[in-house]
Design a protein that fits this description.
The protein is of the alpha/beta class. Helix content is 34%, strand content 13%. The protein has helices at 10-19, 51-56, 110-119, 130-135, 137-145, 165-183, 199-207, 227-237, 254-269; strands spanning 26-27, 30-31, 90-91, 96-102, 125-128, 149-152, 189-190, 211-212, 217-218, 243-247, 273-274, 276-277.
Length: 279
């Protein structure tokens, strides 16, 4: 998200999300970071003209059909079932955890997070806002090229429960199309801003071939609580199957960068495998 200011009071939205029910822990196949499948080839440069204008002219066209395009099946699986809860915790994956970063990419902070992950040979999930991805395409390519999972976090970071079906379709569809144009692969995961989900978001996300991902541990780094507090929340919440929420954009994320440098090697020393889900 471009603005450093949230559109809605965070506490209000979190209460709304809590009212939607606790997400269910589910079993997934999880890829080992060192054996992640290769990325598909990058697409050729697009035709001239305003990309934003093109995207806006197709509010209902993108991926609202079975995912049976010309890409190999491992990159374009069949549309998933419509969920009633997002994935919150991954079961049956052994002594492993998943790190996730929202709202980026941001050229001020995302490169430092990528550097730390690369230093420790760890893969993570990045849920990108479409407007940020569109403005920072080289960073999006770097995220994908280094083996991280690129997810959809809507175009402008709205409260999707306040949008019409057409509005949700536009926010998710534009973002998925932008990510596919940049990386050559459509996102297979999405996360609702503020953790606020509803039936429209589940149905439309599934129709676009994406599974919903929530989190187990919120670092609350968006409150800028101090590096020590972020590290403490991660360490206290660590456990098999845990999904950690952090941010690499949307405000001052220098504490998030510093905290990752501390808790990542500590988690590895504790025997945790940091991985990403694979579909």
């Amino acid at each position: 998200m471009k603005s450093d200011h949230r559109l809605f009071p965070r506490r209000t939205v979190l209460r709304l999300a809590a009212g939607l029910g606790t997400a269910t822990a589910v079993s997934l196949v999880v890829a080992d970071p060192v054996t992640s499948p290769p990325r598909p080839a990058k697409p050729a440069a697009g035709a001239a003209g305003s990309q934003a204008a093109v995207l806006r002219t197709r509010p209902l066209a993108y991926r609202l059909r079975p995912m049976t395009g010309h890409t190999p099946p491992r990159y374009r699986p069949a549309a998933p079932p419509v969920r009633t809860r997002p994935f919150e915790q991954l079961t049956d994956i052994g002594h492993a955890m998943v790190l996730t970063f929202d709202d980026g990419p941001d050229p001020r902070y995302t490169p430092h997070i990528l550097d730390t992950l690369r230093e420790h040979d760890v893969r993570a999930m990045f849920f990108l806002c479409g407007e940020m991805a569109n403005d920072n395409r080289d960073l999006v390519r770097r995220i994908a090229d280094e083996g991280h999972t690129v997810g959809n976090h809507t175009w402008t970071h709205p409260l999707v429960t306040k949008l019409s079906r057409a509005g949700v379709t536009d926010e998710l569809g534009r973002t998925s199309e932008a990510i596919e144009k940049i990386t050559g692969a459509a996102p297979l995961w999405y996360r609702a801003p503020y953790g606020a989900w509803n039936r429209n978001s589940f149905e439309i996300g599934a129709a676009m071939g994406m599974e919903p991902m929530a989190w187990t541990v919120d670092t609350l780094d968006w409150t800028v609580p101090g590096t020590d507090s972020i590290v403490r929340r991660v360490r206290q919440g660590a456990g098999p199957g845990v999904v950690v929420l952090s941010h690499d954009a949307g405000g001052d994320r220098s504490q998030s960068v510093a905290a990752l440098r501390r808790y990542l090697p500590e988690l590895l020393d504790d025997g945790y495998r940091l991985t990403v889900p694979r579909r």
